[in-house]
Design a protein that fits this description.
The protein has eight helices and 15 strands. With 251 residues, the chain is of the alpha/beta class. The structure holds beta-D-glucopyranose.
Length: 251
């Protein structure tokens, strides 16, 4: 009989990605599946895609708990913000919606918190005491704050106000792409952002997650901070791995 693994599913603005996760190793137990996020990304449509991904892994993931990440504040399964998603999500009990649709235990959490949990368990934050900040740089800026390995959920540090603007509109990877910034010019925005964050929290370690974590050699060299700053050990896979891990913890 095939071994069974919990599933992690990362709901993003452009793609919904999922994989079964081997929690002993902290890695995917099978190749990740990615489906385009449906136009408009309503809760029902996203639930359908999530159900499709769960179905695709029916053999390795049968009856296993499912962890789902959302790019939003999520408290007790309910989405409470919508910076980069359809406002229709606000007030939706995504945990109940997905559990009903999938017929199994579902845990829903913020995407950066999930990536952070994975970094603490298996990646760059493993064994680090004190204050660790995991910041994901993508469409928005996500944040996961840990104190001695314990998560303070939903910190939303991407929305700090910086120079009169919502920080993520200036320093997220989407700003680099939209404004066609060189790595060095984008790094100036990161410098401004992370020096502010460092002034507020005095972290012991900052971990950079998100898709752009694999290009860290292009911009981290320009940053001059008090805090050690490193790319995510799991690169962009942390969201899925952390979601699966939380699903098992909370099942
Ligand atoms: C959202 C966060 C999310 C981050 C990364 C922000 O705009 O408010 O909840 O973690 O984007 O996706």
């Amino acid at each position: 009989m095939a071994k069974h693994y919990p599933l992690g599913i990362d709901v993003g603005g452009s793609g919904i990605k999922g994989a079964p996760v081997d929690l002993k190793k902290g890695e995917f137990a099978a190749d990740r599946l990615r489906i385009e996020t449906p136009e408009g990304a309503s809760p029902q449509d996203v639930a359908d895609v999530v159900a499709g991904i769960v179905e695709a892994f029916a053999r390795v993931g049968a009856d296993q708990p499912v962890g789902v990440t959302m790019p939003a504040v999520v408290r007790r399964g309910v989405v409470e913000s919508a910076a980069n998603i359809d406002p229709a999500w606000i007030g939706t009990d995504v945990e109940a919606l997905m559990a009903e649709r999938l017929g199994r235990s579902v845990t829903v959490l913020n995407d950066a918190d999930a990536a952070g949990v994975a970094e603490i368990e298996y990646g760059a934050g493993r064994g680090v005491q004190g204050v660790v900040l995991v910041a994901t740089l993508g469409t928005g800026i996500g944040s996961a704050l840990f104190v001695d390995g314990i998560l303070v959920p939903n910190t939303e540090l991407g929305h700090l106000e910086l120079d009169g603007a919502d920080a993520e509109t200036r320093a997220a990877n989407s700003a680099r792409e939209r404004e066609d910034l060189s790595w060095e010019d984008w790094a100036k925005r990161l410098q401004r952002y992370f020096s502010h964050v460092e002034g507020l929290f005095s972290p012991d370690l900052i971990v950079i997650g998100g898709g752009v974590s694999k290009k860290a050699d292009k911009y981290l060299k320009y940053l001059d901070l008090r805090t050690k700053i490193v790319p995510a050990g799991l690169l962009n896979d942390g969201g899925i791995i952390g979601a699966a891990s939380q699903a098992v913890t909370h099942a």
